[in-house]
């Protein structure tokens, strides 16, 4: 089976974000693989370990995205492709999905796996858009995947519970926490990953029609309503004050 | 024409509040760009919802009979309605279902999309959508440059304002078409009585509750308020509760009117999931806990004393 795993680089959650005019100030930002994409890489490798084939890690982003591909190599993928673009077009899911779908079409992949969302934009769009562009079915929020030839049985998270679905490859999958436990790259893997080749593709080579989003501005988060600590002698005092505040001041209950 | 198409959502046969929120938001956009508001409800019984949606500004209330939810089926059906109504703007709930089928709709309609918008305004005839990025540490404003502009919108982010639309009822002939993923079974036993994603009140417990045997203290307050039960990752990782309750970066993003955090420290990953709540109440015995930096009302005290007192006080006033 030919498996493509999608890997996005995002700022570490603990990183301080400084807002610029239309992008963030990247100085001092620590970059990590978006956590859900780690489940995608792991699942790709497990499918190959079971059914044979090849796992290709693909990352779209500026130069630094290569680091994410090195990590994917260290975990055990077979090949890596870097779609090299300017930074903030990665906000634009339809542009991203077009570039990636065109690349995947050329690769003729059986399975595409990405995270359920990337933790910088939280849009949950790219992988399902790729499925639509490739005209294949998809399974979102996968918790379990089983292949029997081309037949796929999957358990996925839905609102309020889980669902078992049946479909067939080629398909696209989004990984939810619980799908697997991502392995740590071995030292040997990390060493050899440094020397492995990374294929670089430019947007022009992938024939995308272009961006459909305009970044108007970035701004810091809205200030929160000034909070206050309640003062009371005992639990009962706190309780009656809170009830009063929530009902009469905030009017939310 | 610059019409707005809104896709509503039902839960157990009842209209979810987001359907009114988006119709109301759609009304404001349509008034500004000069068009009509069409609200689609996936049902074979659209008449039941017409007056509620008319009252918040729907000019047309469209019933589409697309059967059981499937992302492909909904995308096919909604795209057919888009082709018929030719809206300039499409609003879809950023719910579990909405975020899934919207992706296919955007590609079919050759449209740009902004997902998880929390603010919608109009500038120069185009919608400007505001959304949190980087776990809420920044906000971005986007315009969609394609002819059709699609937005998925977070629950509880839009005001519901009464305003009469024409309220004409239509039954759409759109169908689910070819669906390549078959549902074999569903298990809804582990979930919440009230869904986190669109709950207007959430009561959440963290490691401060000490052990799984103490959930009833938190659940009692939630039940009294008709609230959903949330949890921090620490409690999920400890195996005290299922992951479906987890709020935060690796759990659910929520935006209730009121979020009551009991024994939760307020780590950045937790704030990423609930930081946009309108009012935040923190009950924590450590006055220096980071949660107090975002809390509207802070209670520095032992939750084992305050939460039961709060439950009984609410029982009194709510009857
Ligand atoms: C990649 C990654 C993703 C993550 N995703 C999430 C996520 O989605 N959601 C999430 O929540 N976390 C997430 N975390 C974990 C997060 O960093 C914190 O570890 C977690 O939120 C802490 O949970 P807590 O507040 O319940 O526990 P603690 O930090 O242990 O806090 C417990 C609090 O309870 C208080 N307390 C104790 N006893 C009492 C009492 N009797 N009365 C009142 N207060 C009391 C204490 O003062 C303390 O502040 C993630 C971490 C990583 C690295």
UniProtKB/TrEMBL annotation, chain A:
Residues 21-210 form the Electron transfer flavoprotein alpha/beta-subunit N-terminal domain. Belongs to the ETF beta-subunit/FixA family. SUPFAM superfamilies: Adenine nucleotide alpha hydrolases-like. This is Electron transfer flavoprotein subunit beta. The lineage of its organism: Bacteria, Pseudomonadati, Spirochaetota, Spirochaetia, Leptospirales. Keywords: Electron transport, Transport. The electron transfer flavoprotein serves as a specific electron acceptor for other dehydrogenases. It transfers the electrons to the main respiratory chain via ETF-ubiquinone oxidoreductase (ETF dehydrogenase). Heterodimer of an alpha and a beta subunit. One of its GO terms (biological process) is carboxylic acid catabolic process. Its cofactor is AMP. Pfam families: ETF (PF01012). SMART domains: ETF. One of its GO terms (molecular function) is electron transfer activity. InterPro entries: ETF_a/b_N, ETF_b, ETF_beta_N, Rossmann-like_a/b/a_fold.
Automatic annotation (TrEMBL), chain B:
FAD binds at residues 207, 232-233, 246-250, 263-270, 284. It comes from the Bacteria. One of its GO terms (biological process) is fatty acid beta-oxidation using acyl-CoA dehydrogenase. GO terms for molecular function: electron transfer activity; flavin adenine dinucleotide binding. Binds 1 FAD per dimer. Signal peptide: none annotated. The keyword RNA-binding does not apply. Keywords: Electron transport, FAD, Flavoprotein, Transport. Its cofactor is FAD. Residues 4-191 form the Electron transfer flavoprotein alpha/beta-subunit N-terminal domain. The electron transfer flavoprotein serves as a specific electron acceptor for other dehydrogenases. It transfers the electrons to the main respiratory chain via ETF-ubiquinone oxidoreductase (ETF dehydrogenase). Belongs to the ETF alpha-subunit/FixB family. This is Electron transfer flavoprotein subunit alpha. The lineage of its organism: Bacteria, Pseudomonadati, Spirochaetota, Spirochaetia, Leptospirales.
